[in-house]
User: What shape does this take?
Amino acid sequence: MRFVVPQFIEVEDKIIGPVSVRQFVIFLVAFAIIFILYNIMSFIMFLFAGIFVFGLAGVTAFARVNGQPFHYFVLNILYTIRKPKLKVWNKEIVHDRSAKSHKKFIKTAVVAPPKKMATSSKLTRLSLVVDTGGAFKEEEETSFKV
Assistant: This one.
C-alpha cells in the first residue's frame, strides 16, 4: 500500500488568488470589528479606528519577520518577556537521602578532580591516528617529533 507524502508543507493553501485561509480569516475578523466600530462610533472616530484596525490586520496577515508570520513574532516577543533572559547552570548535585520523610532536600556540592590538559604532542598523535584511520602505531611515534 503506497501513501502520498506531502512535499510543500510550509506553503499555505491559497483560496482567493494569493490570499491564504489564515489571511482571509484575519481580514474577516478585521471587517467584523470595523463594522461594529461603524455602528457604535461617530464617523471621524470610526475613520481613524477603522484605518488602525485595517492596518493592523494587514500587518498581521502579510508581514513576515525572519521568514515566520508576524503573529509568531509577537508570540515570541511575549514569551521572551515572560521568561528569564539569563540562565545559569549550577553544578551542585541534589541528593534525596530519604524519599519517604518530609525533610527538605540536602544539597551537597560534588567537587570534580581537575582535568589534565592534553599536550600538543598528544593531540598531534591523536590527530594522526584519526587521519590515518588507525594505521598510525605507537612505534612510529618516536620518529615523529613536533
Notes: The chain has a mean pLDDT of 81. The CA atoms of residues 7 and 130 lie 39 Å apart.
